[in-house]
Amino acid sequence: MGSRDSGLQTRFMSGNEAVAQGAHDAGLAVAAAYPGTPSTEIVETISRLPGVHAEWSVNEKVALEVALGASLMGRRALTAMKHVGLNVAADTLMSAALTGVHGGLVIAVADDVGFSSSQNEQDSRVWSRFAHLPVLEPADAQQAYLMTRDAFELSERHEVPVLLRLTTRVCHVKRAVLLQPAMPRPDPIEYRKNAERWVLSPGHVAKRLEARAARDAALRDVAEQSHWNVVTPGADRRLGVIASGPVSHAVREALPDAPLLTLGLSAPLPLGLVREFAAGVGTLLVVEESEPVVEPELLAAGLAVHGRAVLPPYGEISARHVRDAARTILGEPAASPPAVTAQRIFTRPPTLCAGCGYLGVYYWLSRMPNAVVCGDIGCYTLGASPPWSSVDTVLAMGASLGMAGGVAKAQAGDAAPRPVVAVIGDSTFLHSGMQGLLNLTYQQANVTVLLLDNSATAMTGGQNNPANGRDLHGGAAPVKVDFAKLVEALGVRPERIRHADPYELPVFVKTLREEMKASAPSVIITSRPCVFTPDFNRDLPLVVDEDQCNGCANCLDVGCPAVLTTRREQQVRASGKVVDLAWVKIDPQLCTGCEICAKACARGAIAKPARRVIALEPA
Ligand code: SF4
Ligand code: SF4
């Protein structure tokens, strides 16, 4: 933290932290989100700021509805989500775009450009066109702070939800942010019943569409005048560049002499400003991550522009990409390759943590290649990777159960149907898996559901949820979900609801086999906490007895990163069969003492170290 002569504070912040601070300084009253990389820290940061109700809602749709309810009561509200979260919230989004808002409502949506932690790459600006919503696109944390403040005013002035489109680079990169004085908290707008506006029955829709058309026209004027849409002049006017978001910094770096139009308020598109800009340059290049959104709009408006054809089709766009695109357009020779070739970096694929309960689950599922395993979104997605390679599908939050139902039904009448397993974690089940289970029981699809309760929304950093009985702040929540009761209420027969400890390999596999043979939907609940939760008990690290170890490598199939290979050998057996052997040791820093690997070792070569007893001399 620092300060300047002006008395204003400067803080070193990520974009997510800046959005949180900007919302707080704009008089935010309610913030609701479901965790999702790269957006998670927004509401986490807000939860540490005073005077705001912050919550983890059960999914993004509910979070948006919570924020909209607060807005209805005239309070400023924010919801945050990753790009795929907006798909979940889309039904409410489309309606909220028609009702409009009372108190300012900001939807901070973080697009994982480069899909570093997501199942796809999506451009949330597409939603803004679909729903007729304005979009602010910060290029860095400073802009994220200022735009968030402005977004509330824009939202209230035009009674419209505002999309604040962030990308991974803005969310996570830190810089010094000059804070502004907190805005005076606006007086709550008085709530009055207004069914014509807030009850979207068919008879009310036409009026709302008319209101939306008037709002569109007003917002077009705002975009033309916005101080966030900035022309930076340049001496080399052969090529003018239009950019938005963090890629505008890449353009400045690549083409410092080219005129640049930065679209901070990128929807509605300020066509008048673009035309004016176009008139002063030879040709236009649109640089945008991830989808061409502005480019087709300009083409449709009759402007000749270059864009995606000369830029990468996905992922982050760098200064080198922009330079190469400019050379292609201007017919200049390609740059010679850099003199120094970068060293290849040793890849380190993500894996489950040492002691994670999922290790036991996948140890066994990897030994059942005939089973079709429909996975879901969470750490357990990693079951698709070596050494387990057991998960067949991962698509979207909660999708495992519905897909598994389809796989089961498709095999109806087959002589030897494959067993079907769905794997889903506690938080994802509560997010959008429950409906899939209800469908399984309603349709009596023969699926074995592994409900992996690890007491956290683990993949995004161990956030609390209704399953662990703690609220966002870590305090006791009034609700702790009883999964056995919940799945019974969703139609699973009591005898088909089982509990199994994935650390107890033999008992776990016995339960799994029994339920896979059953001819009804079943749920096996595993309850081992994530190693990063306060519920996890770390034990003494295990050791390998080298005299006992015969190199069978069975323990490596557990996939624990604490089991390290020390030596590999190929041996030819008397039968002529060639076998791969590996000897191991255990990393005492990583090992949590869970004993899964010990249970996988038939020779008992892995065990807790003998405790040394130190006899103390009497004083
Ligand atoms: S973070 Fe938790 S749930 Fe995820 S792999 Fe590690 S121990 Fe398992
Ligand atoms: S006991 Fe074995 S499986 Fe468990 S954390 Fe230690 S090395 Fe990994």
TrEMBL record:
Pfam families: POR_N, TPP_enzyme_C. [4Fe-4S] cluster 1 binds at C549, C552, C555, C601. [4Fe-4S] cluster 2 binds at C560, C591, C594, C597. Its cofactor is [4Fe-4S] cluster. Catalyzes the ferredoxin-dependent oxidative decarboxylation of arylpyruvates. One of its GO terms (biological process) is small molecule metabolic process. It catalyses: indole-3-pyruvate + 2 oxidized [2Fe-2S]-[ferredoxin] + CoA = (indol-3-yl)acetyl-CoA + 2 reduced [2Fe-2S]-[ferredoxin] + CO2 + H(+). The lineage of its organism: Bacteria, Pseudomonadati, Pseudomonadota, Betaproteobacteria, Burkholderiales. Binds 2 [4Fe-4S] clusters. In this family the first cluster has a non-standard and varying [4Fe-4S] binding motif CX(2)CX(2)CX(4-5)CP. PANTHER family: 2-HYDROXYACYL-COA LYASE (PTHR43710), INDOLEPYRUVATE FERREDOXIN OXIDOREDUCTASE ALPHA SUBUNIT (PTHR43710:SF5). It is an enzyme of class 1 (oxidoreductase). This is Indolepyruvate oxidoreductase subunit IorA.
